[in-house]
Write a structure and sequence with these properties.
The chain is an alpha/beta fold. The protein contains six helices and seven strands. The strands form two sheets. Strands 2-1-3-6-7 form a five-stranded parallel beta sheet, sandwiched between helices. The chain has a two-stranded antiparallel ribbon with strand order 4-5.
Amino acid sequence: MKAKKILLVDDDTDLGGLITSSLIVAGYDVHYQTSLAGIENTIEAFNPSILILDVEIGQEDGITRAKSILRQFPRLPVLFISSHTETPDVVRGVIAGGVGYIRKPFDMTELQAYIERFSSALKFNDLR
């Protein structure tokens, strides 16, 4: 069986590296980047099963950017991860179209449960 493709965007390189390593060990194909630069092109090229997106990426707001990503790729599941743990932040992420919002710090088994539940096996053309 082909590994599910995970696109992870988080500007915390220590955490991003740890998550990436853990997911690779668990059998996922992971593309990790630290910014939202070129994210739409990365989605087209990598064809992820799910996008795991930090809420605060440098000066950018992942939730706001997710809205435009989901307009272009409406069937791509977006899972937010964040140290912003207040209920209004979570609500904003879900209303923006996220399939979930995991508060940092989190357990990798929780992240994997979300990946398994929401990752799609769609081909790129099906994401639009």
